[in-house]
Amino acid sequence: MWAKQKCLASERGGRPEGDFVPGQQKLYRACACGKHFRRSQSFSVTGDSDGSSFISKETWNEKDYDRVSLAETSLLNKLIRKSLVESNHQVEVLQRDPSSPLFSVKTFEELHLKTELLQGIYGMGFNRPSKIQETALPLMLADPPQNLIAQSQSGTGKTAAFVLAMLSRINPGDQFPQCLCLSPTFELAVQTGHVVEKMGKFCVNIRVTYAIRGNRIPRGTVIEEQIVIGTPGTLLDWCFKLHFLDVKKIKVFVLDEADVMIDKQNFLDQSVRIQRTLSPDCQMLLFSATFEDPVLQFAQRIVPEPNIIKLRREELTLSNIRQYYFECENKEDKFRALCNIYGSITIGQAIIFCQTRRNAKWLYFALANDGHQVSLLSGELTVEQRAELIQQFRDGKYKVLITTNVCARGIDVKQVTVVVNFTLPTKMTREPDFETYLHRIGRAGRFGKKGLAFNMVERHNLPLMFAIQDHFKILIKRLDPEDMEALEKIED
Ligand SMILES: Nc1ncnc2c1ncn2[C@@H]1O[C@H](COP(=O)(O)OP(=O)(O)OP(=O)(O)O)[C@@H](O)[C@H]1O
Ligand SMILES: [Mg+2]
């Protein structure tokens, strides 16, 4: 529990030296007791208060908005993911030939894989196929090869599935590219390459190369690696400008992360240009974490005669999260309410969401200056730094993570019991952003646990909150930040 008035740092251990505070370390020096840190430059916690016009001012300030691309989110998810994301839903299959039998496997042995591949899979700690793999793998490994479009939520085993398919189709005796895999970014291509390397660890003579910017290969080279992973533009150059490989010899063509790919129009055109030149019996596989209409349309354009597999997303629910709001005057008032919550209830770990970087930074300093163990995660950090910070938070190094929407999706920290919306999520248009609310608050009630959510709402923004309430058909109870008794009762 955070007590309210004393030097909290002495109870909490303060902000330990060496904490990762991007670009801000210089602002701190140890306080009198030698253990804690204080600002050493003049910095006013209340200095840039703009009271009730706060939201409107911030929402207009576009450059301050913390936006993350789908590719960044996808990479962050991979860097922080520890294991398979299980699904409770059934796989839906749309077969190209509905009269052919549909196989589904419960074990990897049933797939009759080469021994070295089974070794690779077990070496990665996989015991049995994931839900999507149960159906996708027999389809992908069937002879003659069949095309596939597969959608399932991030972390459910798509990449592992197609890597297995690529590795099992390769003839290691042939020293030329046999599998092409398109990825939306350099970093995501490298991630896929890591999976190939791990799964193919026992496959002698199978190698991978990367068609990504910066991987300069002298003109006239003939590539010998059997797997080429790359981004569409560079891969297009490799195939048709530099003639590093013979596209007609490609047996498996994979387009991964189609939902991320369609974010960039020229990637679609480039992917289609590569696909059009492939041999008619090349197997085409496309994967996506989501299946909005544009993704599906693109998928059907690029994959002829596909089998389609879908696994519905796990829905986030707000039903096991108790939600409250505080009516506040301005951000200083919100800050006081926040301190009162911490003074009244026992909190495991908490995530506090702000709408802008500027606001998150302000709150970070306000809390850190008050002696709290907090960390700040915003889009100013690289994806790798964000992943590192989230890991430290998971390890319990910090109790409070202050963040912007960079962190609204996909981060599961089991210990998080409290989510605070220091600012309600709004779109650029200043309308309530329901989806982001769901994703933010959904962080608190993961794994069937009960969670608590607090919304700090300035009076003029109350309509936003009521709109959220109506949208989700939920009750967000009003709390008086000064009523400590009521606050203490929340825990019961
Ligand atoms: N059958 C399995 N058993 C155990 N773990 C698995 C299995 N298949 C995949 N995994 C692991 O689960 C995690 C997610 O797998 P993978 O990256 O293949 O998912 P994905 O659906 O491609 O996710 P994304 O959409 O984010 O790319 C990885 O850590 C992977 O090693
Ligand atoms: Mg993947």
Automatic annotation (TrEMBL):
GO CC annotation, single: nucleus
InterPro entries found in the cross-reference section: DEAD/DEAH_box_helicase_dom, Helicase_ATP-bd, Helicase_C-like, P-loop_NTPase, RNA_helicase_DEAD_Q_motif
Highest taxon, organism lineage: Eukaryota
Keywords noted in UniProt: ATP-binding, Cytoplasm, Helicase, Hydrolase, Nucleotide-binding, Nucleus, RNA-binding
Domain Helicase ATP-binding stretches: 139-309
Enzyme kind, highest EC tier: hydrolase
Keyword Phosphoprotein: no
Domain Helicase C-terminal: 320-487
EC number of the protein: 3.6.4.13
Protein name: RNA helicase
